[in-house]
Amino acid sequence: MADTPVFNSGGAAFGRGLMASTVSRECDVAVVGAGLSGLTAARRLAGRGKKVIVLEARNRVGGRTESVRLGNGAVGDLGAAFLGGPHHKLMALVAELGLAMDKHPGLGDSMAWIGGKAVRYASYDANLDDEAEADIAQGLERLDAIGKSMDLTAPWQHPDAETLDRINFAEWIERTLHTEGGRRVFNKMVTAILGVASSEMSALHVAWFYGTTDSFATAITNRDGGWDYSLRDGAQEMSNAMARALGDRVILGKPVHRIEHDGAVVRIFADDVLVRAKRVIVALPLHLTGRIRYVPPMPAARDAIVQRAALPTLSRALVRYETPFWRQEGLSGTALTDHLAPLLVVDNSPADGTCGVLAAYSDGAAGRQAWKLTPKAREKQTIDILVRAFGPAAARYLEYVERNWSDEEFTRGGATPMFGPGVWTSFGPAFAAPVGHIFWAGADTATCWNSFLEGAVQAADRAVDEVLASLA
Amino acid sequence: MADTPVFNSGGAAFGRGLMASTVSRECDVAVVGAGLSGLTAARRLAGRGKKVIVLEARNRVGGRTESVRLGNGAVGDLGAAFLGGPHHKLMALVAELGLAMDKHPGLGDSMAWIGGKAVRYASYDANLDDEAEADIAQGLERLDAIGKSMDLTAPWQHPDAETLDRINFAEWIERTLHTEGGRRVFNKMVTAILGVASSEMSALHVAWFYGTTDSFATAITNRDGGWDYSLRDGAQEMSNAMARALGDRVILGKPVHRIEHDGAVVRIFADDVLVRAKRVIVALPLHLTGRIRYVPPMPAARDAIVQRAALPTLSRALVRYETPFWRQEGLSGTALTDHLAPLLVVDNSPADGTCGVLAAYSDGAAGRQAWKLTPKAREKQTIDILVRAFGPAAARYLEYVERNWSDEEFTRGGATPMFGPGVWTSFGPAFAAPVGHIFWAGADTATCWNSFLEGAVQAADRAVDEVLASLA
User: pLDDT by residue (tens digit) across B75-111?
Assistant: First the structure.
């Protein structure tokens, strides 16, 4: 690969944000974003003999995965953490990379703190009578039936797309669920992993989302679903391992601000680096793809869907204990609350038994309420909720770390955009369609396990297939 | 003002997108965006003795106003065009600039083509019985009452804010209107000037929007409302006149890509221009403010509201005739359709009688449907609708020009963001709040006649007041 320093490029640099001292590199395929999706794409392309260069804005790889070492040396995940049996592409990648996975213990009852009362339960939610359970079952059946009857690459073509995309999920719940308990479970729990209130999402989008995970039950279970395993060295290690193998083909600390794609060669500008490539894969959160300037500009529909791809707000905190004490009492470590952050807590302890770790997700309005607190007060609120859920032992924690993903300049939320009414039926075809020599990856564009680690890999594979076909 | 060419700035340029040859300028207040709002702010600041520099991405000023000369020499507006009696700030500016206004004739019946039938009517809509008229009256009263009981600078503080922001406007209509005709008028007409389906907007937002125009009736009327007058030389002439007076303090063709605001001096980077200023006013559509990189980055809430500020899709076409022939038949030139673009047609003829001009707005789903047509087919569809509304004389047009504002790289839609459920109550305080030395203008941030020309001026005045107070 030829590295050509271009000094004082003068007139030619006009309008392109070129530095006084610019390094120019050439490759077959440039990748923007060294998250799991971008690096998977680069790895696959390199494996097919293509010259690749990956440009990453941060000084680390991994995107929405971020693994940290806790005080006792255990690894904790501040971002995406779990994977499962149905994640075939991801499992294959983990095996290729020679990384170890640990099974989630996944046993025991859950706790909920709802209406000011802590309740222990073994089903979807506390306080459900038979009628509510039956209601939930029929509601889930109807939700899953929509996803299963849908071409997940074209949800706007579903026979009921117009109707479903005109109403929000809250309205769909109102029409479909008939018990108070059923509605509560749908409004709180079915939306818990989405990070957005049911009133803010299109019903079509929710059905599509759970369609990409096969069903709601599959999406949330740790028994052959989305949450069976974690990576022993942390989820970020997948990206670290791929980046190590790619070596100097991965360039850190270079946010791409401009892509010129008016000719046979695409020019990608990132501070003082200029990459010339035959094709480019942009593997960013969908909304961040709009913060790059394209010359020529994107078509109206592409720009419009990007304008409507806000990421939910999301924080994740890890709380470390001497041991996973909750297991002794037959508890799974899962807890739900109904109004205060964190709204969802799960057991994220390392398998070697060196400590107990609870991961606490704070999203939606409750999570944002906690933004207003001082870090100390937010920590206290989290511990208070853990005490209510798991008893006084939860107060004896050893460490608390948190990451507010909405603060992260190069992510700005998580996990995946939740489209409001009208987006799919108005702009659907522009969702992931290549524009000239520009292709799109990233878990946001996945049509299989959207937003999950598996989705990042599936989107990468799809983009790589598109690029290879276009180069053939 | 010192203009310092900085050649070969080398190391200092690192990470800032500086050109090999960069021109550096200094001022008290930099303004990003030479639309009506940005230029009004610059003019007011200059009038107060401040050194200003305005950076504009396009090679013209005026932003969402754009006036063109039609084939016969008449002036036509492809963007914002109308102003009215209640627009006190705008009226004062027009007088200051010595520009002439013409009164909209505003007489006669309107036409609607609904359910495949053309109907002539003198009220809000065709085919309304007394019951529907009464229903509409009570619905409007309730909608306006919310706006009037609201602090328009803080809609999230309204006593019913949580409830109203949880439902979309379609749901509010369902709950508030009781007749089929009333619901139709609310779903079609009350949303007609907003460009977004009632299912896509928060009920709180719609109430707030019409609160900023005093009432729905005021917003849509051309009798002491939002549509009384047009500018004889076109609405863009306001910006042209201000830019002429500012002279070389307005710099065209320089899209700002980076703002550094970590010290006492703000540094604004736009291609090969670097402006150093004490303060900066960013006067862009809200969503485009997110396409600038800020160092340090924006707070999470600011970034989040910007992510949720998509502009509706919007096109405007002008159709020129020998004469405003519709007036002879007692028609106002206003027409509404219920499913095909253009959805709204208004008389936009010059007052001197040299020709007749109909302005046709295509927004929402119907407008986007027309994107798929060839320009010729889209023109034909528009003329067909005019013929259905105004008879065979409408087929004898002399000229057709159109502007799809969603295609415009430096606007990307119009007229103003329509927030979905949850945005105001989640992120409201970040709507227009200054961040350090950065202040926000633009009609999107107006709390008085939001999205109208008046709003652009009101937002500019508010930002100027904030800047002056912070410099005092």
Answer: 999 999 999 999 999 999 999 999 999 998 777 777 7
Contact call for B300 and A407, based on CB within 8 A = yes
What percent of chain B is helix, strand and coil (3-state, nearest 5)?
A: 40, 25, 40
Side chain identity at A438, as an amino acid letter? I
Convert the pLDDT of each residue in A323-371 to its tens digit. 999 999 888 898 888 777 888 899 999 999 999 999 999 988 888 888 8
Does residue B409 sit within a domain? no
Q: Are A222 and A106 in contact (CB under 8 A)?
A: yes
Q: Which of A169, A189, A216 is the last residue of a domain?
A: A216
Which of A300, A311, A425 is closest, CB to CB, to B307? A311
**Residue in B113, B188, B125, B128 with CA at minimum distance from that of residue B391:** B113
Q: Are B35 and B442 in contact (CB under 8 A)?
A: yes
Tell me: the pLDDT tens digits for A141-171? 999 999 999 999 999 999 999 999 999 999 9
- Cross-chain CB nearest to B199 (options A167, A258, A310): A167
Q: Are residues B163 and B305 in the same domain?
A: no
Query: What is the greatest pairwise CA distance in chain A?
Result: 75
Q: Residues B354, B321: contact at Cβ < 8 Å?
A: no
> So what's the ipTM on this one?
0.93
Q: Which of B19, B305, B423 to mutate to test the interface with A (most CBs of A within 10 A)?
A: B19
Is it the case that residue B11 has pLDDT exceeding 60? no
CATH (domain of A49): 3.50.50.60
Higher pLDDT, B336 or B246: B246
User: A447 and A363, same structural domain?
Assistant: no
State whether B380 and B255 are in the same domain.
Answer: no
Q: Which of B404, B439, B463 is the last residue of a domain?
A: B404
Residue B354 lies in a domain: yes
Number of domains in chain A: 3
Q: Pull the structure tokens for residue A115.
A: 């209406």
Same domain, B204 and B286: no
B10 pLDDT exceeds 80? no
Instruction: Assess whether A229 and A326 both reside in one domain.
Output: yes
pLDDT digits (tens, 9 = 90+) for B248-264: 999 999 999 999 999 99
Please answer whether residues B282 and B440 qualify as being in contact, where contact means their C-beta atoms are separated by less than 8 angstroms: yes
Report the CATH number that the domain containing residue B197 is assigned in CATH: 1.10.405.10
> Can you read off the two tokens belonging to residue A255?
């946010």
3-class secondary-structure state, position A357: strand
Q: What pLDDT is recorded for position A14?
A: 37
Question: Are B298 and B438 contained in the same domain?
Answer: yes
pLDDT, residue A20, reads: 52
Q: What is the pLDDT of residues B33-68, one digit of tens each?
A: 999 999 999 999 999 999 999 999 999 999 999 999
Closest by CA position to B111, among listed B98, B103, B120: B120
Q: What is the CATH number of the domain that holds B86?
A: 3.90.660.10
Same domain assignment for residues A254 and A338:
no
Q: Length of chain B, please?
A: 472
Per-residue pLDDT tens digits for B371-388: 889 999 999 999 999 998
Question: What's the confidence (pLDDT) of residue B240?
Answer: 98
Distance, CA of A312 to CA of A309 (rounded, Å): 9
> Can you name the residues that pair with B315 across neighbouring β-strands?
B362, B404
| Structural domain includes residue A135 | yes
Predicted pLDDT of residue B191: 75
Q: How far is B274 from chain A (nearest CA, A)?
A: 12
pLDDT at position A115: 61
Which candidate in A18, A19, A191, A306 is best for mutational testing of the B interface (most B CBs within 10 A)?
Answer: A19
Q: Which chain A residue lies closest to B274 (C-alpha atoms)?
A: A17
Q: What is the DSSP code string of A110-158?
A: EEEEETTEEEEESSSSSS--HHHHHHHHHHHHHHHHHHHTS-TT-GGGS
**B241 shares a domain with B304:** yes
Count chain A–chain B contacts defined by CB atoms under 8 A. Answer: 150
Residue B170 lies in a domain: yes
- Domain of residue A54: give its range: 3-63+235-310+418-471
